[in-house]
Write a structure and sequence with these properties.
about 300 residues; Rossmann fold; five-stranded parallel sheet
Length: about 300
């Protein structure tokens, strides 16, 4: 079976995030198929999770982060010392791209899961762009999470022939019977009101307060994480909107995913159209997805 080495700054568990969740689930799936899976990250790791799923988790460490990017020479060391048949990078993460180029080790194909352009760091992004283009010119395949991302990405221009659309999905066991049972409780509690579910980080520019204040005759619930001063607690108190931190249910706080409310929501609002696309794999039918734009 092939040996695959994944590179990114974090993985879930323990770090909760969109790319982190995808990376963790992909690694588990590959290990179940009998692959020899190694995963190198600069952030914290859950060694017990790695042992449970027979995944070699390598904590390369970091000196800090600059513009959300890890300062970690440990990636270069891992690339030079590890043996692998496939190198899989999860982007955006300039550190792993630069480390791969510096390692100069091209005995195995490079593949990429590409989730977003770097759009906020204008100056540093422009400085990094030539290195990224050099890297893309050497990769075997770029997995892009949506056709819209491929159409609008400035970084992928000229590399469309290497790209393949691979929408993000959810595990087939989610939501489960326990989620469905709670979903019935939710529907009864709100007396048949249509439910709007917002999933994503609660960033100010997404207009979540507008959604909350104008949610009647709907009932709005939200699952995600607060960033900076964007905590919507006052709006929650005024409107009765239920909020959940990562790992909690927006309804009761006792589930690891908002599966129950997804089962009964009328409309899903997500900052990524790929989150909406993933609901095609969800056994709960009749859900409409709406993307609000921005990052997750």
């Amino acid at each position: 079976m092939p040996k695959v080495l994944h590179l990114y700054k974090d993985v879930f568990p323990p770090t909760y995030g969109g790319i982190e969740i995808v990376l963790g689930k992909l690694a588990v799936c590959q290990a179940r198929r009998g692959w020899d899976v190694s995963l190198a990250v600069s952030g914290p790791v859950d060694e017990e999770w790695g042992r449970t799923h027979q995944i070699k988790v390598i904590e390369v460490g970091e000196m800090g982060r600059l513009l959300s990017n890890p300062l970690s020479p440990g990636f270069l060391k891992v690339l030079r010392e590890q043996d692998y048949d496939i190198l899989h990078l999860h982007l955006p993460c300039p550190t792993v791209v630069l480390a791969t180029l510096m390692a100069g080790k091209k005995q195995a194909p490079w593949v990429v899961s590409y989730q977003s352009d770097i759009v906020r760091q204008k100056i540093t992004g422009a400085m990094y762009a030539p290195f990224q283009r050099r890297f893309f010119s050497q990769v075997s395949r770029i997995f892009v999470s949506s056709q819209n991302l491929l159409n609008t990405s400035r970084a992928l221009k000229g590399f469309e022939d290497r790209c393949q659309i691979v929408p993000l999905g959810i595990s087939p066991e989610e939501p489960g019977e326990q989620d469905r049972a709670e979903a019935e409780e939710v529907r009864a509690r709100y007396q048949g009101k249509p439910i709007i579910l917002f999933i994503g980080r609660f960033r100010w520019y997404k207009g979540l307060p507008v959604l909350i204040e104008g949610d009647e005759p709907y009932r709005c619930s939200a699952a995600g994480g607060w960033i900076g001063n964007s905590q919507p607690g006052t709006h929650s108190a005024q409107t009765g909107c239920r909020f959940a931190l990562p790992g909690e249910s927006p309804v009761s706080g006792k589930h690891s995913a908002p599966g129950a409310i997804v089962c009964r929501c009328r409309c899903l609002l997500s900052s990524f159209d790929t989150s909406c696309r993933s609901l095609w794999l969800c056994p709960a039918g009749g859900i409409q997805g709406r993307s609000s734009g921005g990052d997750n």
